[in-house]
Every structure is written in C-alpha cells, then in structure tokens.
C-alpha cells in the first residue's frame, strides 16, 4: 500500500508540475493596478453622469450631474433636484463660498444655495440660450459666470455683463490662483487675469489652440494646447512637453488639475491622462480607473483625486502605501503562505503553485530552479544558514541556494507542519508532536497531540500552542512546562521581543504577555483591532507589530506603552476583504513588508504612508422624537442651515425620548472614524462607538448639551466637538419656582409644627422649672431658718461665753489671748454663716443682690483698717439679671479672697470696687488697689489665686489678674450672657 501511495504521489507531482509551468509561462503579467474607488447610483449618487466637483469648508464634496446635485460626506449622499428648487437638474459647474454656501451653474441659469433653499438667476433672458458653463467666486467674494461665451459679474443682487479681455475669441475656461484672482483662458489669445478692476495678460497663446488652464497649488500656471503643455511661474514660461497626439481635443471642455505629488491630471474622451516624470500617460480600466470620458478632475484637501465620468459616476484615487499583486500579476497569488528575498528575487511558496520567484525590480514572475521541488507544498521555511526546507505530504526537501541537499520520505503522515528555528536547529510541530530537524534526519523530541503552533522566544525557548493552552519547551534541558496564565488560550501565531510575547489567537484577538510581571493584556476588536482572528504576526525594524487578521492588516505602535496605537488598513488602502494567510508576512532588506492574503500579495512601502493633516468635521445630521423626524419650526424660531435642524429646540415635558444622528465628514477613510459622545447632564463619561446614532429616553426636564467628537483615520482625537443645546420644558409642578415654593411651604409647615411643639415643651419645662424653683426656695428658706436658729444662736452663745471667760481669767495673759482668738474666730464664723444663710435665700439668685453683698462684705473687712474704699457702678448693672443657684456664693467668696489678699500683701491705702456693663454686653467686676504690686511672671500662684480661678470657671466667667510693681493690682471677672444660662 505504501508503494502505491508513493507512486500515486509521484505521478500527481509530475502532473501538477507540468500544469504549474504552463500556467506560469502563459500568465500575463500586467501593470500593477492603482487604487481607485468607484461611487455611483448604487452608493446613493443622484445620477451617474458627473460633470463637476467641488469641496466646501466642511470637507463635503459637491457633485454636479446631468440629473441633479449631490453632497457627499464620505459615507452618505444628500441629493437635490428641481423638486428642491434647483434651476435645472443639468449641473455644469459648482463653486463654494467660504461660509459653505454654493453657486451652481446649470443648463438654464444659476442657482445659489444658502443652506436653506435655492435662489435662481437667469443671466440671459432667452430660454434657448440660458446655459451657464462656468461659475467662480473670486477673492473679493464676487461671483463670475460664463454663459454663451459672455462673462458676467454679480454686482449687489444682479449680474451684469463685463467687457472681455479679448473680443472675438472663444473663452475656454475660468480659474483662480492661490490668491483668488480670476484668470480667463482664451482659445487663441492666451490667458488673462482680472486684477485691480482691469485685465492684464499672463500667458501668451501657445502654439495651436488652448484647451485647458489650471492655476496650480504650487503657484504656477499650467496651460495645455493641442501642441504643448506650458508652465508659467514668476513671469517665466517653460514648455514641459509636446502634447501627445492621442489626447482627444474634440471639445473645449478639458479640465486639468495638479495633485499634491505634482502630477497633472487631464480629462479626455478616453479616460484620464496624467503628466508625470515629463511624460503623458493614459490611466484606464486596467489600472483600476475607467476607459470612458472624464468630464472633471478635482483634488480634495485630503489629497485624494476625484474623477467625474460620463456614465460611471465618480472615481476616487488615493495613493496607498500598499501595492497589490493579484492573480493577474502573479499566478495563484492568493495561495502564497511563505516567502523570503534574495537580491531582487522574492521567493514565494504557494500551496498550489510550488516555489517561484517575483523580481521586485523588473516586476516579473518566473519558475525558480529548485531541484525536485514539488508543485504543491504543505509547509515552507527559510533559514539563512541551513537553507530552505519544504514539505509535500510526507516528503521533506532541503535546498541551499536552490540546490537540493536532502530529500527523503517519512513513514509518518503529517496533516500540518509549522516551522521555527532555535539558533542553527530547525524545529516543527505536527499532529503527532514536537520534532527536531538537523538537516539530515527528523527526530521526534516530544510525542504530544493537540499542538497547533510553534514559535521561538528571544530567550531561545520554544513556545508551543496547544488545544489546552500554551507550553514552553527548553531545547537545552528538554523540560516542558505549561504557562498557567495562558491556560485555555488557542495560539495561532507568535512573535516576541525582550520584554513581551505576542500571541495571535483565532477567537480572542492578540494577547500580550509580559515576561517579567507575567501579566496579560488583551487587544481585540473592541480595542481597535480589525478582527479577532489573527493569522500572522511580525515585528518590523521600527518595533511596530504587524498583525494579519481575518479582516485586513493592523499596525500596532507603542507596543510597550499603556496606550497602544492601532491603525487598521482596509478598504481605503485597497485591502477590503483581504483575509491574511497563515504565517504570511515578511520584511525584506529594503524595509518593504510583504503580506500574503486571499486577495493576493500586498507590498507595504513605509515611504508612501500618508500623513493625516485634515481633522474630520463633525456635524449633526438628524434629530428624531420617539423615532420620528421632528418638524423644526414647531420646536424653535430658527433653523440651522444645511441640516435643517431646529436651533436650541424646546421640547415639551412629554417629548423626552430623543435620538441623534451624526457624521464626521472625511473623504479619505470614513470607515475608520470612531465617535465619542455624551449628553451633558446625563452621561458621566464619553461613550465611544463606531455607530453614528445615540438615543436617550425619559429625559427629565432641564437644559442639555449633546456633545460628539470624531477621531481621524489614524485613531487620533482632535478638538472637533459638535455641541447641540436643547431644553425639555417642565410642567408647572416640575418647575424650579414651583418646587422652591412648595419646599418653602413645607419647610414653613414643619417649622410651625416644630415651633408649636417647642413652645409647648418650653412652657411645660418652664412650669416644671418654676415648680422646682418654688420647691427649692421653700427648702432653701427652711434650711436658712434652721441654720440661723440652730447654728447662729449657738455661735452667738459661744461668743458671749468667751467674752465672760475673758473677764474672769484674771492676770493669765496666755489664757486671755487664747480666748480672744476663739472670740475672733467665732465672730468670723458667724459672719461666714450669715453669707451661707444669705446664699440659701432666693434673693441671692440676682446679680444685683450678690454685688450688694460683696460691697457690704468689703466694707466690713476694711473697717478699722484705715484703707479707703471707692465703689463705682457706671453704667449701672441691670436689676433683673438672674443667676443660677450658687453663683452668688462663688462671687462673694472670690471677692472676699481678693480683698483679703489686698489687706495682707498690697500695702495699699485705697481700694476701688468697680461694676459695669461693657459695650459687648458683658458684665465686668473689678477690684483694684494702689499698692506695691508684683511681677506676675516671677510670682508663683498660691491656693487663694487658684481658688479664685476655679470659682470663676464654675460660674462660666473669664478671670484675669493684672499687676505692675509700684503701681498696683487689678482683679477682673468678666461674665457673658451664656454665663447665666442654667
């Protein structure tokens, strides 16, 4: 059976080789197609015969056709016809004013669109000759029009015919230079400009007849006749080339434009010509454009070139960094899965075509002389030192510089083989396990089913993809370990650098694994990747990571930083629907990167990468209420131009389910635009999306601002927000004033209830307090009476007995002195008990009474001392100041201590007792002497002074002591309103 199988394989190999050679030698290698995109009625264009193109300040493209006017924002077309107010549906020319309004030349006159409606003008009253060929707005805002070989200039609100520069000659076209000065080209007389309200000649008539003129963005004037192409700059005229005879000049409506690369594009009957590298070249359908007549050519501010055709709509040409080589250029270009470059030859491996070469200089394809190479390959790998290895079913081939080094047949059957290299050793995985290939033999190192991919890390380890996750195999030790963090991950391709592993999967996008921290980071479609199916990965010389996906090709920059920049290449670069082939990416020695896809082979040239300079303009295109279009006049007194939306609309309280539709005008790559929006007052953060609609339901009454931003095609964000303000009106019970009034009434009601409750509580408290005070007064009065009767009488009796004993003691002086001391102490106790009895009486609760008691005590203490007492009370203390119980006693004791200190230490001959109410309504009580005073800082505080402070604190008073040597001492107590609170 093995013999029959091998013979069948050999026969199939010969047949396929023969077919392959026939295909290669019969294949026509045509010119590389350019990247053109076609837009026609299927995309929304009003009609496919396009006559004129222009661009407004909002980046929108205005397209004139035989069947009406279209305005294109890069994604959608908005169409206008006679039903919208156009003078005629046959549009011949368009020019835009700086405010975005448009002048349109039609077959029946001029139309002006102001953003709301069309205003129509007839330059020539004869309806049979009302056609206007050209319209231009100059640097002074004046409107020029060409009709029936007559020039018209708009003055105020009417058009007047202006005297031409040359009489009797045919005007070919109008154009304006960089400064906005109008230039007029004549068929035989050359070019004239209108400056300072007079004509002056700019270019003499070239040989033959002048058919096209263009004021270039480089400041030069270009003129094309049927004899020569002429360039005029700074007064110097230069013939660039003789005109190619094949350019068809059967009509004078030839238009010409200079693009950003300095290439001149010229319309013609057969398609479009360009003049580059000092030669004319016809661009036709085989180049990706059109063979039919082009009527206009225009360069937008994104540097795209637009072609207006007579029947196929319009074409957009964008220079792409990608060049495509499809099956028309390279046979079976869609089946390439491996490649490498030697010199000018790009060696290609095809699963259907075998090994062949593409000469990158000559742009040619040929069969390469790989000895015994099979026409069908199942794997392919190139090693700079070992050579090139390939498999065909169970056969292995090894070549060095195209010469066969080894060929043998394995008994094992491999369904797939994926290669990598560790140093000078080749390794591959198959459906049976891990294998090592040293150039002579294949050795199974690890029998392991379920292996799907292999890669080599910078640490010279083999990273193996398995159905259950990812494992690491050390070729030196033979040790196999699973990576716990990557368990369950299906690896499809692999790349690495010194810091990170990059793992392409078939369902989770790209996984980045940090080698040091062992942390994972996922980059998927939601993060900006074009697709979650990653088929190949490659790090280029600039440390950009390239990912070939199932939806296109992505470039990841700043891959070691938090904010990775992702640029997806797709439709705008000619990669629409290009699904990458497995392991089909390669960077050659020139820095060109090659990608194998299902759409053919693509080459990326970094030097052709277009820098994005234009910020997309964000506009609001639609407003719906409960999913229905709004009537602007019902919501606002004003309407926004162009969009027709209400300005600052006011919605009723039940009109609160609102939807917005928005757009970012981008003529380059609108499919790459991402939006960020929020409704200020509802959304805390911006919502990022590719969709262009946003809906909000059940909005509460209030003022709102809808804010939306758009990124550019590279994913960069700009300050290009569009803000739309509106209001949801509240019913009367939802208004601020109603809520304020209701809140005030409710608070007033609550305050009234609290007040009434508090009054009742206070009345009850006062009643209880009065009863308690009355009871306390009775107790105090009874106590005072008992104290007076019991203690007072006994102290008096003791005093009398002491006096009797003094008389009877005789000459015993020692005993008499003792009795005198007892009598004095008894008298002192008697006077103190009188203060206690007084403090128990209810009169002691009044400040006025307490101060009177202080005065009496002071007078008594100064009796027979010779010290003068002065009492001051100005302004007088109020009579009704009521104090808590025990305050009076503390005041008496404080001043007793103060007077006693003055008697003992001050050596004063005058004391001043001063009571008054201060300006802050506090009560001030002072005792001042004119004694010797003392230094407070040097004097230690005794028990008397400490007691005075403590008693002042007990009655919530502020105690202070002031003294100066030789001047005297002042004791002050200050009582505040809160001091008398219970």
What's the short version?
The protein is built from 6 helices and 70 strands.
CATH class of the domain at 324-608: Mainly Beta
CATH superfamily annotation of the domain at 324-608: YVTN repeat-like/Quinoprotein amine dehydrogenase
Please indicate the percent range of residues in DSSP E strands (runs of 2 or more). 35-45%
Strand order of the largest sheet: 59-65-64-61-62
Q: Percentage of helical residues? A: 10-25%
In the CATH hierarchy, the architecture of the domain at 324-608 is 7 Propeller
Q: Which descriptor suits the 3D outline?
A: elongated
Please give the alpha-carbon distance between the first and last residues.
117 Å
Kindly name the structural category.
Answer: alpha+beta
What is the number of helices? 6
Describe the 3D structure.
There is one protein chain. With 982 residues, the chain is α+β, with helices and mostly antiparallel strands. Among the domains are: 324-608, YVTN repeat-like/Quinoprotein amine dehydrogenase (Methylamine Dehydrogenase, Chain H, 7 Propeller), CATH 2.130.10.10; 617-734, Immunoglobulins (Immunoglobulin-like); 847-982, Histidine kinase-like ATPase, C-terminal domain (Heat Shock Protein 90, 2-Layer Sandwich), CATH 3.30.565. It is 18% helix and 39% strand. The protein is built from 6 helices and 70 strands. The strands form 17 sheets. It has a 5-stranded mixed sheet with strand order 59-65-64-61-62, with no helix packed on it. The chain has a 5-stranded mixed sheet with strand order 66-67-68-70-69, covered by helices on one side. A 4-stranded antiparallel sheet has the order 1-28-27-26, with no helix packed on it. Helix 2 packs antiparallel against helix 3, helix 4 packs parallel to helix 5 (887-906) and helix 5 (887-906) runs antiparallel to helix 6 (943-954). The longest helix is centred in the last third of the chain and has 73 residues, at 736-808. Mean pLDDT is 87; it is low at 1-31.
């Amino acid at each position: 059976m093995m013999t029959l199988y091998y013979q069948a394989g050999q026969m199939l190999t010969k047949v396929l080789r023969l077919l392959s050679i026939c295909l290669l030698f019969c294949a026509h290698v045509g010119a590389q197609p350019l990247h053109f995109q076609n837009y026609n009625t299927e995309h929304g264009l009003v009609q496919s015969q396009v006559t004129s193109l222009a661009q407004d300040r909002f980046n929108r493209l205005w397209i004139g056709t035989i069947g009406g006017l279209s305005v294109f924002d890069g994604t959608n077309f908005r169409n206008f016809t006679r039903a919208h107010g156009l003078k005629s549906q046959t549009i011949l020319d368009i020019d835009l004013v700086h405010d975005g309004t448009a002048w349109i030349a039609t077959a029946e006159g001029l139309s002006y669109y102001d953003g709301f409606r069309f205003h129509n003008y007839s330059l020539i009253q004869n309806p049979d000759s009302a056609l206007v060929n050209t319209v231009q707005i100059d640097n002074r805002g004046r409107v020029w029009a060409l009709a029936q070989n007559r020039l018209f200039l708009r003055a105020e609100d009417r058009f007047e015919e202006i005297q031409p520069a040359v009489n009797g000659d045919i005007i070919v076209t109008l154009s304006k230079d960089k400064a906005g000065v109008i230039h007029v080209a004549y068929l035989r007389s050359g070019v004239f400009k209108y400056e300072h309200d007079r004509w002056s000649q700019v270019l003499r008539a070239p040989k033959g007849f002048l058919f096209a003129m263009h004021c270039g963005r480089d400041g030069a004037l270009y003129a094309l006749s049927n004899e020569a192409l002429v360039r005029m700059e700074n007064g110097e005229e230069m013939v660039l080339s003789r005109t190619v005879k094949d350019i068809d000049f059967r009509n004078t409506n030839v238009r010409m434009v200079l693009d950003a690369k300095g290439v001149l594009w010229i319309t013609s009957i057969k398609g479009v010509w360009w003049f580059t590298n000092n030669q004319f070249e016809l661009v036709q359908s085989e180049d990706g454009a059109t063979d039919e007549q082009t009527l206009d050519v225009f360069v937008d501010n994104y540097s795209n070139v637009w072609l207006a055709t007579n029947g196929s709509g319009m074409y957009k040409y964008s220079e792409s960094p990608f060049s495509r080589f499809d099956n028309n250029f390279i046979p079976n270009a869609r089946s390439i899965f491996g490649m490498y470059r030697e010199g000018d030859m790009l060696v290609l491996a095809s699963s259907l075509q075998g090994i062949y070469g593409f000469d990158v200089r000559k742009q040619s394809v040929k069969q390469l002389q790989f000895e015994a190479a099979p026409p069908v390959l199942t794997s392919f790998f190139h090693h700079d030192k070992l050579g090139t290895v390939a498999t065909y079913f169970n056969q292995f081939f090894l070549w060095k510089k195209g010469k066969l080094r080894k060929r043998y047949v394995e008994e094992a059957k491999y369904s797939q083989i994926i290669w990598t290299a560790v140093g000078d050793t080749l390794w591959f995985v198959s459906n049976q396990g891990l294998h090592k290939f040293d150039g002579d033999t294949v050795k199974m190192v690890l029998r392991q089913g379920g292996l799907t991919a292999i890669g080599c890390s910078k640490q010279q380890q083999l990273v193996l993809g398995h159905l259950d996750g990812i494992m690491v195999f050390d070729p030196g030790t033979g040790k196999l370990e699973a990576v716990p963090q990557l368990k369950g991950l299906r690896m499809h391709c692999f790349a690495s650098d010194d810091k990170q592993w990059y793992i392409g999967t078939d369902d989770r996008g790209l996984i980045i694994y940090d080698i040091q921290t062992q942390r994972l980071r996922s980059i998927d479609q939601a993060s900006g990747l074009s697709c979650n199916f990653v088929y190949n990965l490659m790090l280029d010389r600039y440390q950009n990571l390239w990912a070939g996906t199932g939806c296109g090709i992505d470039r990841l920059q700043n891959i070691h930083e938090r904010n990775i920049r992702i640029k997806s290449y797709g439709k705008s670069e000619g990669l629409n629907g290009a699904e990458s082939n497995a392991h089909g990416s390669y960077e050659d020695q020139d820095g060109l990167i090659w990608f194998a896809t299902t759409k053919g082979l693509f080459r990326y040239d970094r030097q052709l990468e277009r820098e994005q300079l234009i910020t997309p303009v964000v506009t609001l295109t639609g407003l719906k209420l409960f999913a229905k279009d709004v009537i602007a006049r019902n919501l606002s007194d004003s309407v926004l131009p162009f969009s027709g939306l209400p300005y600052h609309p006011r919605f009723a309280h039940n009109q609160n389910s609102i939807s917005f539709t928005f757009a970012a005008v981008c003529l380059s790559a609108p499919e790459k635009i991402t939006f960020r929006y929020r409704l200020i007052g509802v959304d805390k953060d911006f919502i990022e999306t590719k969709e262009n609609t946003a809906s909000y339901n059940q909005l509460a009454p209030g003022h709102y601002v809808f804010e939306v931003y758009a990124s550019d095609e590279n994913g960069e964000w700009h300050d290009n927000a569009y803000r739309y303000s509106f209001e949801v009106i509240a019913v009367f019970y939802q208004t601020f004033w109603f809520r304020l009034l209701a809140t005030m009434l409710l608070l007033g009601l609550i305050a009234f209830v609290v007040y009434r409750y508090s009054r009742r509580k206070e009345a009850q408290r006062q009643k209880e307090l009065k009863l308690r005070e009355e009871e306390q007064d009775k107790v105090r009065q009874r106590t005072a009476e008992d104290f007076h009767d019991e203690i007072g009488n006994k102290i008096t009796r003791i005093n009398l007995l002491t006096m009797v004993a003094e008389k009877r003691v005789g000459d015993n002086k020692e005993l008499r002195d003792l009795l005198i001391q007892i009598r004095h102490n008894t008298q002192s106790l008697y006077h103190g008990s009188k203060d206690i009895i007084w403090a128990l009486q209810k009169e002691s609760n009044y400040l006025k009474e307490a101060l009177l008691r202080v005065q009496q005590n002071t007078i008594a203490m100064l009796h027979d001392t010779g010290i003068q007492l002065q009492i001051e009370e100005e302004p007088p203390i109020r009579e009704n100041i009521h104090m808590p119980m025990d305050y009076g006693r503390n005041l008496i004791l404080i001043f007793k201590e103060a007077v006693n200190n003055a008697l003992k230490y001050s050596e004063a001959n005058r004391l001043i007792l001063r009571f008054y109410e201060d300006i802050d309504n506090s009560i001030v009580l002072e005792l001042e002497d004119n004694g010797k005073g003392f230094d407070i800082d040097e004097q230690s505080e005794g028990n008397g002074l400490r007691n005075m402070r403590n008693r002042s604190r007990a009655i919530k008073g502020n105690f202070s002591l002031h003294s100066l040597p030789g001047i005297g001492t002042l004791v002050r107590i200050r009582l505040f309103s809160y001091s008398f609170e219970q």
